[in-house]
Amino acid sequence: MQYQDVVELAKRRGIFWPSFEIYNGLSGFYDYGPVGALIKDNIINTWKYIFVELEQMALIDSPNINPEEVLDASGHTKVFTDYITYCERCGEAYRADELIKKKMPDYEFTTYDDMVKKIEELGIKCEKCGGNLSRPEKFNLMLSTKIGPGKGKTSYLRPETAQGIFINFLPYLRYFREKLPFGVVQVGKGFRNEISPRQSLLRLREFNMAEAEVFFDPEYLEWKGFFQDMMDQRVRLLTNRGEDVELRLGDALKKGIIKQQPIAYFIGLTFRFLKNIGIDTERIRFRQHHPEELAHYSKDCWDCEVETSNGWIEVTGIADRNQYDLKQHIEHSGADLYILKKLETPKNIKVKRFKGNEEKLKSIFGNEWERAKKYLESLEVTNNQIIFQGKRIPEDAYSIIEYDEKEEYTKEIPWVIEPSFGIDRILLSLLEHSLYTRENTGYKVLRLKPHISPYKVAVFPLMPKDGLDKEARDIERILRTENFNVYYDESGSIGKRYARADEIGIPYCVTIDYQTLKDGTVTLRERDTTQQERLGKDELPEKLRRLILKCLTSI
Amino acid sequence: MQYQDVVELAKRRGIFWPSFEIYNGLSGFYDYGPVGALIKDNIINTWKYIFVELEQMALIDSPNINPEEVLDASGHTKVFTDYITYCERCGEAYRADELIKKKMPDYEFTTYDDMVKKIEELGIKCEKCGGNLSRPEKFNLMLSTKIGPGKGKTSYLRPETAQGIFINFLPYLRYFREKLPFGVVQVGKGFRNEISPRQSLLRLREFNMAEAEVFFDPEYLEWKGFFQDMMDQRVRLLTNRGEDVELRLGDALKKGIIKQQPIAYFIGLTFRFLKNIGIDTERIRFRQHHPEELAHYSKDCWDCEVETSNGWIEVTGIADRNQYDLKQHIEHSGADLYILKKLETPKNIKVKRFKGNEEKLKSIFGNEWERAKKYLESLEVTNNQIIFQGKRIPEDAYSIIEYDEKEEYTKEIPWVIEPSFGIDRILLSLLEHSLYTRENTGYKVLRLKPHISPYKVAVFPLMPKDGLDKEARDIERILRTENFNVYYDESGSIGKRYARADEIGIPYCVTIDYQTLKDGTVTLRERDTTQQERLGKDELPEKLRRLILKCLTSI
Predict the structure, then answer these.
(1) Do residue A501 and residue A380 come from a single domain?
(2) Residues of chain A contacting residue B552, judged by C-beta atoms under 8 Å apart
(3) Taking CB atoms and an 8 Å limit, are B30 and A152 in contact across chains?
(4) Same-domain pairing of B176 and B48
(5) Cβ separation B53–A175 shorter than 8 A
């Protein structure tokens, strides 16, 4: 099935559609309708089942709005940019690299000058009016706002949920009783002021993400997760050396293709999650970043890509974030985002420490002087320049003191590996992989697994008369009370009703007929096989519960 | 228990804490930690169980960011304001009405002049430095941002989730097969740039809300919901005539105290929801708005208030929104947000209609001329001024045409009743109502119901040795696979472990002892009674599942 079939179905049956349509829309924003919001919830709940219940990571929820200090530290205010170019005649804006890619699909950004040269060489003009394009400039993708009265405090809508986890490393460390490794996860919105949003859920300005930040002792980079057989999982890998191979994760790690054990584990976990919700495993691959794509601090990074009619699209990133983020937040906030490691034998050592001069620090840092002092006094004594919040601490702002100490602990910045999931893209791919046409009827069917399906069961009276409707309503009511989301339908032929239910992926249909009134039995029809069985209505709740639970827990 | 006990527990055990603490915080923002995020999820899931599964409302998800057209139409850009006053010496900002209320608790805003007079009469000065205060000015509480490249499009973070529902009335009407009444619900973030956020979760700038917009044919204002006995529900009502009475909802409606049946129903539903999650029913009341508190279009509005150590706090509003919002969006967008009602006998009528002049409309409305024309031609012919998007359509921009028509339908704007829930306040109240001190131990216990509890069961090996820990790990693993969120603990005495589990509300603790190794039985201890029973480990999953399901579905 193609993207266009999915978009048509999505609009017609209430899965998703462009937001604000009565006001001409606003590109990059989509609504999830009554069917789509339930599917999205179920995908997220399955993700939480795997990451929170099985892998025992801590679920948290931090604000969408972040003050600028957080994003200054993370580097987003400086480097979270794309190059933008405007038409000098009509003012239309374009992402420079995308214009080039349209004419030169292999293009990868290397230098600014090369980009400018490519635009010239390829003779790229405004797509709307043919006008000349301006020199590309950096465009920050964060959305900003001001918090509080008066001028307000500059803040941003978070571009990722990760920073809300890093800055609270200490409470999470306490929660896990000071033991590494541990994972902290968050599911929520992210925001990027994309220059050119496109293809509905594929590139949104407001999107749903699920991220895990997993903290390790740098000396023990290993995740002993729930799945003891994970290293036996076979996956398709596109390595940065150009190979396209299917390998056991354990072998890929042994051969040095995957650099770190947790990355191998989370590649496997991503594969099993996608398989569990219903993504076609033949259309999943993991693509390793090329060395030049990697952030300077990162040793290895893999994208999970899923094949759709729009090509291979990235749905998950599994990245080595190294000690970078915590290091940045230590430097910007002065907080002790370290782990303490007990030494086997305490050492007697001479300690040299900076001792900050209150008056001098006040004159440089104003209200922030206490943080500056704390930061300064936490440092090893060196001859390097000491920078706090972008300002140098001059030598006359501290003295150096010396004393004896028994060193029992050494402190270290934890190492972070991050699997990050784009929920909207996963949902879009899942719809494409799930939609098919039933051969004998020509009707469309959405092959959603029972735990992902928006409604768990449809209830139909054979006819809306002779007490069949009342009996059906009673059964519907019992199922609702038992915590099933039920779809009731009494209009049109049973065939039409099956077709309507199939199209939004309802896995089971229960029909109440004249025999039900006599012996209390109903028919239960399974969507994909269309096979029916007859069973007592009292058996329904337990039967359905077992079927759905089995589907969720088969990983 | 008091607010301070809850805040202390919340911070210590990972329920919630102020956000961005390593950067000095940002007032009005809170993080939910590993325990709190799970409790919040469970409250929301229970709400969805009631509103989506039982009441069959449609769950949807629309963007946090709304373009200004939406909030111009709803009136928020104009009237969503508080009065702010600044200290003329130190610049500190205050909410004017709150300053007055501190000295005059009964104060209610009537007029601007009265407010200014009160500040003078009461001699109110800056609380920080004693300086004089500026004349109060209106301060809009919405947070704004700019979307897209270049100057960007002015947009706002939504102050409520409701508008995202109203503007999509037509797809929802289609989803419900053109039949009223129906409800559409949304759970998500709301944002208000509060002048003075306070008391942790009580007044946040970014908060969690769950709203239902229920659409009615104005002639049939009745919600025949899941609970057929709802009118027999007794609740405590504080009427706007000053009575404080406990009444059957049916009687309150009959006496004209509650004005509309759906409001009575949703008051009952709110009561049952709060009771189900564990709010003390003795500390729930519903307060009717005084006529002067009501929006001009609203006939009736009730706040659900819960008593806490901070006094009675509003946790839910049940409001008659009348036809106001849809009417505004019709006028601003030109969209047909109507229902069509078939007439019993079609009428032959002479129709008079406006016919817009394309050229003239273009000259007035530019790109928007087609909407203006559509709007104009949808109107009844009158002599009133015709306004579209704030601009008058002059008489030379249209002609009036007459023709015969068979009228089969009449169109009408649906009527909306809205129950709106503040999830953070509900969570805060629930914690206060649930926390108690166990008499014989002096330890704190959080009396959370099993379906609300962050972890469903704790698993303890009696000792972490002799194979007890391995057996406990196996049982833990089985429970996780069966979709229970499990808390494993092997450190300290069993008593200490019970205490740790009690404090975060875990309802059941399973202990693995030497007998387990012999006969496969374990002890199951219930939190509040501390009673223990012995049962086979294989019976655990079904036993726990039934206990939790029973708790969720007892409404």
Answers:
(1) no
(2) 483
(3) no
(4) yes
(5) no
Comparing alpha-carbon positions, the chain B residue that sits nearest to A189 is: B64
The per-residue pLDDT for A1 is 64
Is residue A36 included in any domain, yes or no?
A: yes
Measure the CA–CA gap between A29 and A43, rounded to whole angstroms: 20
Q: Is the pLDDT assigned to residue B1 strictly greater than 80?
A: no
Read off the pLDDT of residues A155-174 as tens digits, 9 standing for 90 and up: 999 999 999 999 999 999 99
CATH number at B457 reads 3.40.50.800
The verdict on a CB contact (< 8 Å) between A65 and B20 is: no
Same domain? For A181 and A285 the reply is yes
pLDDT at A343: 87
Q: In chain B, which residues have their Cβ closer than 8 Å to the Cβ of A48?
A: 41
CA–CA min distance A539, chain B (Å): 15
- A18 in a domain, yes or no? yes
Mean pLDDT rounded to a whole number for chain A? 94
Tell me what pLDDT residue A389 has: 84
Contact between chains at B549 and A54 (C-beta distance less than 8 A): no
* Same-domain status, A193 and A90: no
Domain count, chain B: 4
Residues linked to residue B533 through DSSP beta bridges, in sequence order: B524
Q: Please check whether residues A219 and A286 belong to one and the same domain.
A: yes
The burial of A156, by beta-carbon neighbours within 10 Å (0-12 exposed, 13-18 middle, 19 or more buried), is given as buried
What CATH number does the domain containing B94 carry?
Answer: 3.30.40.230
Last residue of a domain, one of A140, A158, A179: A140
| Best of A20, A326, A553 to mutate (most B CBs within 10 Å, chain B) | A20
The verdict on a CB contact (< 8 Å) between B552 and A483 is: yes
**Interface pTM (ipTM) of the complex?**
0.90
**Minimal C-alpha gap between B482 and chain A (Å):** 7
Give B518's contacts (C-beta < 8 A, 6+ positions apart).
none
In this structure, are B172 and B242 located in the same domain?
yes
User: Do B195 and A143 count as a contact with CB atoms less than 8 A apart?
Assistant: no
Dump pLDDT digits (tens) for B346-364: 888 888 889 999 999 999 9
Per-residue burial over A126-149, b if 16 or more Cβ lie within 10 Å, else e, is: beeeebebeebeebbbbbbbebbb
Q: Is B520 left (phi over 0), alpha (psi -120 to 50) or beta?
A: left
Full domain range(s) for residue A201 = 3-80+141-323+417-424
Does an H or E element contain B326, and which? helix B324-333
- Which among A424, A453, A476 is the end of a domain? A424
Residue A338 in any domain: the answer is: no
| Sign of the CA dihedral with A99 first, then A104, A105, and A109 last | negative
Chain-chain contact of A60 with B477 (C-beta, under 8 angstroms): no
Residue in A40, A335, A337 nearest the CB of B61: A40
pTM score: 0.91
Flag the least confident range among A327-336, A544-553, B290-299, B460-469. Answer: B290-299
- A38 lies in the same domain as A146: yes
Do A234 and A251 lie in one domain? The reply is yes
The answer to the question of residue A50 being in a domain is yes
Q: Render the burial of B187-214: b for 16+ CB within 10 Å, e for the rest.
A: bbbbbbbbbbbeebbbbbbbbbbbbbbb
